[in-house]
Design brief:
heterodimer; A: 238 residues; six-stranded antiparallel β-sheet; 6 helices; B: 216 residues; alpha+beta; globular
């Protein structure tokens, strides 16, 4: 099977939430249209959502603390939820987590719906919980999230700082689904973004059908661990 | 790294228990109590989770803990934060100096990925976690096995974004001590990993101690 044209496109507005069951054999492109976006994302096996993205397994299987092309997102069950098949950014953050209501209020003040309509201040935690709720999931299903387009620098003593200007206008990342993956996404600002203004950015989404990972797939051969990860994922569908 | 000793006397502890390698331990801590974990044999991985005792969906969060202190490594002064923003415990003494919360827990499945598919049948932490939460009951199950702390483990991140498992910096008798800031449930898997040099391929027992806080 060859790659299809774009099946559909959608714009996720600034600080908004989105979810979709990304089918095995399709690819989600997330584009940072204006530069400086943050797309917080969680991933679940749609057929059994207790199987979910596992940040530690993803990092230690690949000896990484950043995400880019050639790496994969592991579930807690030794399977690959998504592969990163293309990336023009080079660094996506798996460490920083999401913001919460108290933090957003302390940093930016209050902006309620009553006065600000759909420009009211939303936070990562409540956005994740709200979108998870639509699928019958809840706070117990919250786990470590990925922050696409953001980068956190780590000093020798472990201190972490937000890396400004990580992602330019037009930057994109491609996620190829290796399972039927429930993606929960929001465009709230990164929790460590030092900007004193609440300034969330939109992202553009595009989905297309793509060929399955072949024997020489760059994500499969990037590490021996990933070869085994693909084998275990393929066995799940036998 | 700054090492901080505790003034608490083990003879005054209200609870003492040795957890053999490969076994789970789950216990309630009341707000104000002090909780110490002692690395009896040195460089033993103590995989640990905490829950708000009044709402198990509010549980230890590695990312919230890292983010709120602006540092990846846990040591004296670290507030262990929950997904709901609760401070569950504060580390008040630490004679090891650095603890990991990125390496997670070993599992049958992650051992298959990391080492070889034949490793499936070796005992692993997440099986201990699962056994403990199911026996604890109260509706707890696999969804409650969050990303944990690895006390006494050294998992540095490089500026280039690599994650490395370095030789341990702990040794026999080193300990970490926390004050419970809320009523919490502590869950430990004393790690049975035999595939990783971080514990010299030799999992060993650890001791847990609890003291009541100062009265008044």
């Amino acid at each position: 099977m060859t790659e299809s044209p774009i099946l559909w496109e959608e714009t996720v507005q600034p600080a908004a939430s989105w979810s979709h069951v990304l089918k095995r054999g399709t690819c989600l492109r997330i584009t940072d249209v204006e530069g400086g976006a943050n797309a917080g994302a969680l991933f679940y096996n749609f057929e059994c959502p207790t199987e979910r993205f596992n940040m530690p397994d993803t990092l230690k299987a690949q000896h990484i603390a950043r995400l880019t092309k050639g790496f994969v997102l592991y579930s807690d069950m030794g399977r690959i939820l998504c592969s990163i098949t293309d990336d023009t950014v080079g660094w996506h953050d798996p460490l920083g987590g999401c913001s919460n209501a108290g933090q957003v209020k302390a940093k930016y003040g209050e902006a309620r719906y009553q006065e600000h309509r759909n420009q009211y201040y939303r936070n990562g935690h409540d956005s994740f919980v709200g979108e998870l709720g639509k699928w019958g999931l809840g706070p117990r299903d919250l786990t470590s999230n990925v922050n696409f387009f953001s980068r956190v620098d780590v000093a020798a003593d472990g201190a972490i700082t937000f890396h400004a200007g990580n992602s330019a206008a037009g930057a994109y990342v491609d996620l190829r689904a290796e399972m039927n993956v429930l993606v929960i996404l929001n465009t709230c600002p990164h929790p460590l973004d030092p900007s004193p203004q609440y300034n969330p950015k939109l992202v553009q989404l595009a989905i297309r059908r793509v060929p399955a990972a072949g024997p020489d797939d760059p994500c499969r051969v990037s590490r021996p661990e990933n070869g085994r990860g693909f084998t275990l994922t393929e066995r799940y569908f036998l | 790294m700054t090492l901080v000793e505790s003034k608490l006397d083990p003879n005054d502890a209200v609870y003492r228990h040795v957890i053999p390698a490969g076994e789970p331990w789950m216990h309630e801590l009341r707000a104000g109590q002090y909780f110490r974990i002692v690395d009896l044999g040195g460089n033993q991985a103590v995989d640990t989770l905490f829950y708000n005792a009044h709402d198990y969906s509010d549980r230890y969060s590695a990312q919230d803990t890292i983010q709120s202190q602006g540092n990846l490594y846990l040591t004296t002064g670290t507030q262990l934060k929950s997904t709901g923003g609760t401070v569950l415990l504060t580390i008040v003494a630490d004679t090891c100096g650095r603890h990991d919360t990125l390496g997670g827990a070993c599992a049958n499945e992650s051992n298959m990925v990391r080492y070889s598919i034949e490793k499936r049948y070796m005992h692993a932490c997440r099986s201990s976690f699962l056994k403990a939460v199911i026996e604890w009951g109260q509706g707890m199950d696999k969804r409650d096995i969050a990303n944990n702390i690895n006390f006494f483990m050294n998992v540095p991140v490089t500026p280039e974004g690599k994650l490395t498992f370095e030789d341990g910096i702990s040794e026999p008798g080193k300990y970490v001590e926390m004050r419970a800031e809320a009523d919490v449930i502590a869950l430990i898997s004393n790690c049975p990993q035999l595939n990783n040099p971080c514990n010299a391929y030799n999992p060993t027992p650890v001791e847990v101690l609890i003291w009541d806080g100062p009265r008044g």
